[in-house]
Design goal:
Helix content is 32%, strand content 24%. It is an alpha/beta fold and 401 residues long. It binds alpha-L-sorbopyranose (SOE).
């Protein structure tokens, strides 16, 4: 059964209409993906119907540049339009819950940028709305785009196949330096009421999602520390207080007896966008760095000891996840392709009627971990339980997995 069979609002005789909310950094990345996905992947027909942003002239200009047929300044414009079937939310975190819940209730499929929301309560309300909409064939997904890096999708396959034996621990770090300069101005990303948290929600969330995605294990307990190094930054009317963290550190205990550590910073001077992940098992190990995103390093501990050592797999063969659709082998891909893969997987799920992953439930699980890290940091408590709602994803929804 396809979603169109289930969802009475969707008329199968016309292409799916897409509305994108937001046209800044993430809106641009998503626009690029919507624009290119059908050139490389077999996806159901769709149209880039509407781009929404607050500034009328800027959003109109962005719509023309990024291939959207129309623009609007109020996101509520999408709710009553029968020609819009999909709402892609790239607005700041404080707007996610209101838009996503309204869109789901109006029968629109929803893709929302990470983290799911600014608070656990918002994430819970969104998850309840998504569960209810799913019963009507309306799909929802959260944009943890690094699940769509072919090398990380391959890492997940190798782990699931047992090539690393029993996973003992994961070490992850997400390091950036765009806030290293103390004169760097205030933005919505530095206020708790608009961003929820700092490096924790913005980038540690990716690392936490990866730990669950790669290993299939769920975080049970954490111990965390948060630090704001630059406590005030220049705003339009003078210095303003920074109310989120610049950096976060956390250790985790997971199901299966697994341990993990995550370090995230937006003041790691010299580090531009370095997501490093290391997975250590009884039978092997994997290492990855986003700055070399076409590569996965694999150590097979079953190989004769004298031949052991990490070997670099260039994840660029047609048999690797997503790669068959792109260029001949060795013609490497980049960061923007992860968003194209994400749209491909979302559209495929909509046309098949199979719920996509990562679901809002999975986004809520990450949100609960973020909340526990904050609680631990605030209370200076060594071990803080993570309230459980769902198990980490077990279904694989990536192409070729
Ligand atoms: C800014 O830190 C940011 O754009 C994040 O918001 C993204 O999720 C990450 O992929 C790159 O960095």
């Amino acid at each position: 059964m396809t979603s169109a069979d289930q969802n009475p609002q969707q008329d199968q005789t016309r292409p799916l209409g897409v509305a994108l909310i937001g046209y800044a950094f993430m809106g641009k990345a998503h626009s690029n993906a919507w624009r290119n996905v059908a050139s490389f992947f077999d996806v159901p027909a769709f149209e880039q119907t509407l781009l929404v942003g607050r500034d009328a002239s800027q959003v109109a200009e962005a719509a023309t540049r990024y291939g959207w047929a129309e623009s609007a300044t109020d996101w509520r414009a999408v709710l009553d339009r029968d020609d819009i079937d999909i709402v892609d939310i790239c607005a700041p975190g404080w707007m996610h819950a209101e838009i996503a819940i309204a869109a789901l209730e109006a029968g629109k499929h929803v893709l929302v940028e990470k983290p799911l929301a600014n608070t656990t309560a918002e994430a819970e309300a969104m998850t309840a709305a998504a569960a209810s909409a799913r019963t009507q064939g309306v799909q929802s997904m959260i944009g943890f785009n690094y699940r769509r890096v072919p090398a990380l999708a391959l890492a997940r396959q190798l782990i699931a196949e047992g090539r690393l034996g029993t996973i003992r621990h994961v070490r992850a770090a997400y390091l950036q330096d765009w806030l290293s300069d103390a004169e760097s101005p205030m933005t919505w990303r530095l206020r708790k009421e608009t961003a929820g948290s700092g490096a924790l929600g913005d980038i540690a969330s990716h690392a936490i999602d990866q730990i669950g995605y790669l290993t299939g294990q769920t975080v049970l307990e954490t111990s965390g520390v948060l630090k704001t190094f630059v406590t005030q930054r220049p705003g339009p009317a003078g210095l303003e207080d920074v109310t989120v963290d610049d950096a976060a550190w956390a250790t985790f205990w997971l199901t299966g007896g697994m341990g993990a550590s995550v370090e995230a910073s937006r003041v790691a001077t010299g580090q531009k966008n370095s997501l490093q992940i290391e997975v250590y098992g009884s039978g092997g190990a994997l290492t990855f760095n986003l700055e070399n995103l076409n590569e996965l390093n694999f150590l097979d501990a079953d190989a004769p000891v004298r031949e052991q050592g990490f070997r670099r797999i260039l994840v660029n063969e047609p048999q690797h996840p997503y790669l068959e659709a792109w260029w001949p082998q060795g013609h490497i891909i980049g960061w923007e392709h992860t968003f194209t893969h994400q749209i491909r997987d979302f559209l495929t799920a909509i046309s098949s009627g199979e719920a996509p992953s990562p679901s809002f439930e999975e986004g809520l699980q990450v949100q609960r971990v973020l909340a526990a890290v904050e609680e631990s940091a605030h209370n200076k408590s060594a071990i803080t339980p993570v309230h459980q709602s769902v198990m980490a994803s077990s279904a694989s929804q990536i192409q070729g997995a």
